[in-house]
């Protein structure tokens, strides 16, 4: 079945560091890939959506792309700020269901 | 103005009791979803709905029922609550297949 693997459970960085989070996915359908962000005490919210392999999604200084050959997709930001501290989920949507499949999440802590 | 609201925000229930969690959306979306969030498991889909009168089982439906009496409202029902159902529950709405989902603020349920 469809699945998403998000290996990095926790990432700790200092302000202005480079962020890179990677996921892998598995599906027999054409994928749509998302990054959601969840701040403390809130529900997840959409950060980025990528519908085409090797195309870049950009939002709030974050960039995301996915590679169909390696079935991987990643999130990056050139310079993180303390306000970016949150949980980041990679999420798979497929054409055969109305469901989204969430990875386990990566907790990003940015130290001032 | 919040488009997806949940009530109650916090709930303490006794084992064997009945619990109803409510969700209201003003997005006029056809699809609505109930998830639970637990450490080490991320977000898991319990039930979802394509529209008023419809409910579908998600990935972990055992012990839960759902009800969609109208476009705007979607309830999650625990007929016989158990301590293993202690969790944070999120409701979400979405417009069409694997599109962006909009989440509510969550309900923290504790079953003693």
Report the biggest beta sheet of chain B as strand number plus sense, adding barrel if it closes: 7 strands, mixed
The two chains with the largest interface, and their residue counts, are:
A-B, 21 and 26 residues
Largest sheet of chain A: 6 strands, mixed
Integer-rounded radius of gyration of chain B:
13 Å
Number-wise, the strands of chain A total 11
Mass-distribution shape of chain A: globular
Q: Mean pLDDT score of chain A, rounded? A: 90
Q: Tell me the helix content of chain A.
A: under 10%
Structural class of chain B: mainly beta
Give, in order, the helices and strands of chain B.
EEEEEEEEEEE
Strand/helix succession of chain A: EEEEEEEEEEE
Low-confidence stretches of chain B: none
Number of helical regions of chain A: 0
Secondary-structure content class of chain A: mainly beta
Question: Distance between termini of chain B?
Answer: 34 Å
- Determine the oligomeric state from the structure: heterodimer
**How much is the radius of gyration of chain A in Å?**
13 Å
Query: What share of residues are in beta strands of chain B?
Result: over 45%
Q: Shape of chain B from CA axes?
A: globular
Summarize this structure as a short list of keywords or feature phrases:
heterodimer; A: 112 residues; mainly beta; six-stranded mixed β-sheet; five-stranded antiparallel β-sheet; 11 strands; 57% strand; globular; B: 112 residues; four-stranded antiparallel β-sheet; 0% helix; 52% strand
């Amino acid at each position: 079945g469809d699945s998403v693997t998000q290996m990095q459970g926790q990432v700790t960085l200092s302000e202005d560091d480079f962020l890179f989070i990677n996921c892998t996915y598995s599906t027999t359908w054409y994928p749509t890939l998302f990054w959601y962000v969840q701040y403390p005490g809130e529900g997840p919210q959409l950060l980025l959506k990528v519908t085409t392999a090797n195309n870049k999604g950009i939002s709030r200084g974050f960039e995301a792309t996915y590679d169909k050959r390696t079935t991987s997709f990643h999130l990056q930001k050139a310079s993180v700020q303390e306000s970016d501290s949150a949980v980041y989920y990679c999420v798979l949507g497929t054409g055969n269901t109305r469901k989204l499949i969430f990875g386990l999440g990566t907790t990003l802590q940015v130290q001032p | 103005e919040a488009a997806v609201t949940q009530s109650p925000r916090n709930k303490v229930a006794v084992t064997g009791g009945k619990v109803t969690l409510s969700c209201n959306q003003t997005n006029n979306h056809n699809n609505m979803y109930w998830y639970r969030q637990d450490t080490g498991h991320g977000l898991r889909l319990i039930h979802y709905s394509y529209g008023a009168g419809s409910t579908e089982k998600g990935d972990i439906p055992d012990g839960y029922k759902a009800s969609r009496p109208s476009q705007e409202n979607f309830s999650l029902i625990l007929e016989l609550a158990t301590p293993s159902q202690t969790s944070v529950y999120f409701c979400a709405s979405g417009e069409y297949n694997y599109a962006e989902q909009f989440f509510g603020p969550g309900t923290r349920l504790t079953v003693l």
